[in-house]
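WARN retry 2 of 3 for item q-0093 after timeout on previous attempt; input resubmitted unchanged.
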Amino acid sequence: MSFSWQSSPKPLIGLSPMDGITDFAFRQIHAKYGSPSVMFTEFTNVEGIFMSQTDHLLNDLRYHIAQRPIIAQIFGSTPEYFYKAAIVCADLGFDGIDINMGCPAKTVAHLGGGAALIAKPELAKQIIRSVKLGVLDWSNGKKIEELQLSDLKLQKIAELKTFSQNQKTNREIIPVSVKTRIGIEQIVVEDWVKHLLEEQPKNITIHGRTLKQMYSGQADWEAIGKAAQIIKETDTTALGNGDVLTLDEAHQKIKDYNLDGVLIGRAAMGNPLIWKKDQNTITPKQKLQFALEHATLHAQTKNEKMFLQMRKHFSFYITNFPFANEIKIKLIQTKNLEEATEIINSALQTLE
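OK item q-0093 returned
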């Protein structure tokens, strides 16, 4: 059954996309132990997919059917590449495509993408139209072979399709959504969402900070609520995002601000049980076991040089129990799965 923002059971409490965090292994752990309502890939640069000589960016679009509903998030500033990327994402079998109009990173915003699009509403609308057209053309039979991709990239896409175990055989139109912020320097989200709604995205998620704030200060839920009130006058669903720490808090935000759901980001790091009512009961043993399983998945899907990425995840898992700091110090110095496995297994024996 195809995913729909409108008909999915409410409230939606999903895993927010986070660059450098919500990769395949992270999502797989959360899908297995927590089952959020919806998940997103890390954002993937549309220009990079087509301009790079390598196929490495396509790895960001790796998923497994266990992660459904899974939305591909893409970013950039060139409508032509958004169009092509939409065809690739649809062909890979994603349940939807989300356009990142909220990333505050200088490497993204200075190139006109992410939250910088808030200052360019006409370009933002053109990008939404391009993604929707890409999805439509794909549903009408357009093939990725027509996108002038290299054989290397076509082979990578074929590999990803096999890996996902995707069983989709029809070419249904998948929903296009937007994740954004409340402004650049000032809060302009009420006017901003009116621009977005002209293009009828199926969902708008609002992070309650401006680009200038980055991730500092407190998320402004009053601003989210005012924008949601405008969105809810249409058929588009509205989600909020920012500083949600628990499942109970997520439900309270949804109630207080009349939302269809929320996305949880940083609070999910190191805690795949956050989606469960008993998430506060996570034990030291579970934390270590989750960390080991996560590391194993990471090693299976990325090369050994990239194992260093696991260090930040270890720092989130290994907290708030006796001798946690001692274990963490060892783990954040590991260079491969074998080293991490030895340290974690030794710690598990100590707990027994």
